[in-house]
Amino acid sequence: MMSEYHKPVLLNEAVEGLVTNPSGIYVDATFGGGGHSRDILGRLTEKGRLIAFDQDEDAAANAISDSRFQLVQANFRYLAKYLRLLEVQHIDGLLADLGVSSHQFDAVSRGFMFRENALLDMRMNRNGSRTASDLLMELPQDELIRIFSLYGEVRNARTVAQRIIEARKNVKIEHSATLMRILDPVVRGSRLRYYAQLFQALRIAVNRELDALEGLLNSCHQVIKPGGRLVVISYHSLEDRMVKYLIRNGNTGGVSHKDDFGNLDCPWQAITRKPVEPDESEIKTNSRARSARMRIAERQ
């Protein structure tokens, strides 16, 4: 099931950097197809434990039959709360492989891709309130501009927002083909790349991905014990910047704080000075790994 659902990126490098105590407690914050989780379990002793999180109900089909494993169906932004409910005070490490699983991309009904006409849904948690169509039909122009320019780096975001505002007066923008028919006249550069960026922006907004990541990162120092590891694989420059700031400054905002003695008040030590990227052989077998950037830090 896992190989069909999602092919894990930087599998060996991530798990090698994560597991420093084979008898420890670890968290896979983005379970998906379970590829990383299976490798983590393979490195743990009988005393080890792995708690995985995934908000997508489809991921439950990949749950691992192992007494050391537990799957929590929830967004990782609520990690600290669920660990308290599970009576886990501290963990030895946390892995987060951000972005969208291959399964979510490939399932037309989920609406993440634009190559086939589909409902503009894009919710990772299908119990979530608003779909991509809802945002396109309801958000004011300034907010649409912000989403497309910030999350998708769409160069003509203002023009895009204006066309959407005008079109929705007469038609419900409910399917990907409808949206693309509205925007085709203003596509700039490669059509494939243009829509990839635009759909990415919508997906990030629908799932409030950066808010969730900020919540996770800023709570990690409370749950990871000293000597424990944080491993994050990101696929967007904004995600990677937040992780870099956290490791360097102790917070996702990039603001440095010093103690009474003038020392930088940061609970993290970088293990990887530069982000680790997939090699060409991995990219050839998994094109979605191309934009991956992995950073590893140790709790001080």
Folded structure, characterized:
With 300 residues, the chain is an alpha/beta fold. It has 2 domains: 2-101 and 209-299, Vaccinia Virus protein VP39 (Rossmann fold, 3-Layer(aba) Sandwich); 103-207, Putative methyltransferase TM0872, insert domain (DNA polymerase, domain 1). It has helices at 2-5, 11-18, 35-42, 79-85, 102-106, 132-138, 141-151, 157-167, 176-183, 191-207, 209-223, 237-249, 280-285; strands at residues 25-28, 49-53, 69-72, 91-97, 224-234, 268-270, 293-299. A 7-stranded mixed beta sheet has the order 3-2-1-4-5-7-6, sandwiched between helices.
Total discrete domains: 2
The unreliable regions are: none
CATH topology of the largest domain, by name, is Rossmann fold
Main CATH class of the largest domain: Alpha Beta
> Strand portion, in percent?
5-15%
Return the CATH architecture of the largest domain.
3-Layer(aba) Sandwich
* H and E order: HHEHEEHEHHHHHHHEHEHE
Mean pLDDT: 92
The number of helical elements comes to 13
| Assembly status | single chain
Strand order of the largest sheet: 3-2-1-4-5-7-6
According to DSSP, the number of beta strands is: 7
Radius of gyration: 20 Å
Helical fraction equals 40-55%
Write the layout of secondary structure elements.
Layout: H1 2-5, H2 11-18, E1 25-28, H3 35-42, E2 49-53, E3 69-72, H4 79-85, E4 91-97, H5 102-106, H6 132-138, H7 141-151, H8 157-167, H9 176-183, H10 191-207, H11 209-223, E5 224-234, H12 237-249, E6 268-270, H13 280-285, E7 293-299
Parallel strand pairs: 1-2, 1-4, 2-3, 4-5
Antiparallel strand pairs: 5-7, 6-7
Helix pairs in contact: 2-3, 7-8, 7-10, 11-12
